[in-house]
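Backbones bend. Our protein:
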Amino acid sequence: MNTFRRPAPIIAVSALALLVLALVAAQDAGNTHLSIAEALLLGVVEGLTEYLPVSSTGHLTVTQQLLGLTDTPASKDAADAYAIAIQAGAIVAVLGIYRHRIANALMAVAGRGRDPVAGRRLLTAIIVGFIPAAIVGLLLDSTIKEHLFGLWPVIAAWIVGGIVILRWPDAAGQRGRALEMITVRDGLIIGLVQVLALWPGVSRSLVVILAALAVGLSIAAAVEFTFLLGLVTLGAATLYETLDKGSVIVDQFGIGAPIVGFLAAFVSAAAAVVWMVEYVQRRGLAIFGWYRIAIGVIVAILALTVL
């Protein structure tokens, strides 16, 4: 299903706006510990990896350490918060791509739309799927940040996730139920599995896609539900972190550079989502399994020799 028929003009205009904003924000670079180049890099890393089954949090954790953004307690606190807040760019990208699907689901609450019953069922499944991770995340937020936001937990999650993908039955062209046929029970099962993604490196997209396939959705429906559930899950986490640590981010990194990162995440996420929908339906998930194992091994070597 091609829900975003003209991505190129939007991506091109956004990229131009990003360039202009970067030039403007560069005037403020002397007052921030996050350079424009670093903000662009973090934004692109976030956008490209947020909805791919490779873990954006894992990639940002490693990238921040390589850039030296976690060398002091103050900068680490700001960097960890920024890694979550920057998700807003990817969220806005999916809102644009799936605006019609989202509008139909919301209209269904009022008994309107093409299929109000299916729309309400989808919206309910998304809400139910969001609740488990929200509860566990609130209860264990400080514990997760203290013990799991590090290289070795991410490396372990990358490699284990890669092995799981490669051992999973080939998902390319997998037949199953359409997204309109999702049930509240499906949403709950997927939501419980999504809790695993609170471990950095696991990848929310990966566990949601596999859980959706396991309950009988088609590969196209599984990928699309991943994006839609991500809007709520990532949106709540981003809002919470921005309200809680927004001042810390501004004090440490300024305003211009984080905004550049946000827009970079938007542009790259839009491109990644459009590519992934087409690729996974034709080729399956194997490439992401090999990538996860490779990046895990490479970062492990860097951790032992450089980092």
The chain has one domain: 7-305. The CA atoms of residues 43 and 264 lie 5 Å apart. The radius of gyration is 19 Å. The chain has 13 helices and no strands.
